[in-house]
């Protein structure tokens, strides 16, 4: 698993190989079973952030009427940073749930800050990674808003086809903003 992290770091950093290796040795990697909640809606936010090495994590919230709304799926080489920016006095407005067995890098804010002081380039690397993630998220959101349900499904096929096999259809439909029945109809028409 550490090789995956090393390869990913090389995309964003000019750290020397021995510095990268030292950082990787300090990083905490944990395994989580399918069905594990990293955080539940209504909990106080964690100061942890996560990076997916293996597996799939679903972000969702439950509306007042009881309807679950999936807002994201995080898979290999994706960071889950959304909960580190919430105010400590506010409860989390969504849940993070392992859809598959997962292997995640788990970092807390304090240890991250210590590593930034020790490895100055690490902070720049994290910023570049976050800028890339933010640009991608903004692009995907704008495209999602402009798209019809059929176009959203086509986009999933093109950009994240692995989700079709990895997540239940009702969760995928929720992520696309449609009902499972509508998703079935779209799939049928496209065949």
UniProtKB/TrEMBL annotation:
Gene3D superfamilies: Jelly Rolls. It comes from the Bacteria. Keywords: Activator. This is Crp/Fnr family transcriptional regulator. Residues 11-131 form the Cyclic nucleotide-binding domain. The keyword Nucleus does not apply. The keyword Iron-sulfur does not apply.
């Amino acid at each position: 698993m550490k090789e995956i992290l090393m390869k990913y770091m090389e995309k964003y950093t000019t750290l020397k190989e021995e510095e990268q290796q030292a950082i990787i040795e300090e990083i905490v990697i944990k395994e989580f079973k399918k069905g594990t909640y990293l955080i539940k809606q209504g909990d106080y936010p964690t100061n942890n952030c996560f990076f997916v090495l293996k597996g799939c994590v679903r972000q969702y919230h439950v509306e007042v009427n009881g309807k679950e709304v999936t807002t994201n799926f995080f898979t290999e080489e994706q960071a889950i940073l959304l909960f580190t920016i919430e105010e400590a006095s506010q409860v989390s407005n969504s849940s993070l749930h392992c859809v598959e067995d997962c292997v995640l890098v788990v970092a807390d804010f304090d240890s991250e800050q210590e590593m930034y002081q020790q490895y100055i380039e690490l902070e720049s690397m994290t910023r570049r990674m976050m800028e890339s993630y933010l640009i991608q998220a903004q692009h995907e959101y704008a495209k999602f808003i402009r798209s019809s349900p059929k176009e959203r499904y086509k986009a999933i096929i093109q950009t994240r086809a692995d989700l079709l096999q990895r997540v239940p259809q009702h969760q995928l439909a929720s992520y696309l903003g449609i009902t499972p029945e509508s998703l079935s109809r779209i799939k049928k028409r496209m065949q």
